[in-house]
């Protein structure tokens, strides 16, 4: 299941980068995140940063452990999470856009086990819209934080 969302932000690339990479403070910026617990910090940069993120999904708290696998400052970062037979890959990018900068988020859910592959059929139909709405709200919250500065 692939999901892509995008918003245009009026602000500096540095301010957008700071907001989107403030993992520890994400629960203060992004209303869909209930809590963040940093598990591992790299010696420098973002690659290797690992955290537990708790969100409410379908009325229940859901916690996922995520980590940053690749990043280029002021351009993009990639994350990975694994749960229930799935690998979840995401990339968040900043690019030039008319009227500001485009902040884009791509998410790819890859089933690994047979059970996950079977589950992915109805999930693709039912969950894609929910995921897209939640991911877009995350970007809207980052946009609001940057544009309020």
Ranges with pLDDT <50 over ≥5 residues?
A: none
> Averaging pLDDT over every residue, what do you get?
91
Indicate the radius of gyration in whole angstroms. Answer: 15 Å
Major sheet strand order: 1-7-6-5-4-3-2
Brief write-up:
A seven-stranded antiparallel β-sheet has the order 1-7-6-5-4-3-2.
Question: How would you describe what is shown here?
Answer:
The protein contains 3 helices and 7 strands; from the N terminus they run E-H-H-E-E-E-E-E-E-H. By secondary structure, the chain is α+β, with helices and mostly antiparallel strands. Strands 1-7-6-5-4-3-2 form a 7-stranded antiparallel sheet. Strand 3 and strand 4 (60-72) form a beta hairpin. Helix 1 packs across helix 3 (114-147). The protein is globular.
């Amino acid at each position: 299941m692939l999901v892509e969302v995008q918003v245009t932000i009026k602000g500096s690339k540095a301010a957008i980068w700071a907001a989107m990479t403030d993992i520890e403070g994400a629960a203060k910026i992004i209303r869909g995140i209930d809590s963040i617990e940093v598990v591992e910090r790299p010696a420098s940069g973002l690659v290797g940063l690992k955290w537990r993120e708790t969100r409410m999904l379908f009325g229940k708290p859901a916690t996922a452990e995520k980590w940053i696998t690749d990043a280029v400052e002021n351009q993009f970062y990639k994350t990975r999470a694994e749960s229930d037979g799935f690998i979840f890959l995401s990339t968040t990018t900043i690019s030039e856009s008319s009227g500001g900068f485009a902040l884009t988020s791509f998410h790819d859910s890859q089933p690994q086990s047979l059970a996950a592959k079977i589950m992915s059929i109805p999930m693709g139909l039912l969950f894609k819209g929910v995921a897209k709405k939640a991911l877009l709200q995350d970007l809207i919250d980052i946009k609001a934080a940057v544009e309020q500065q």
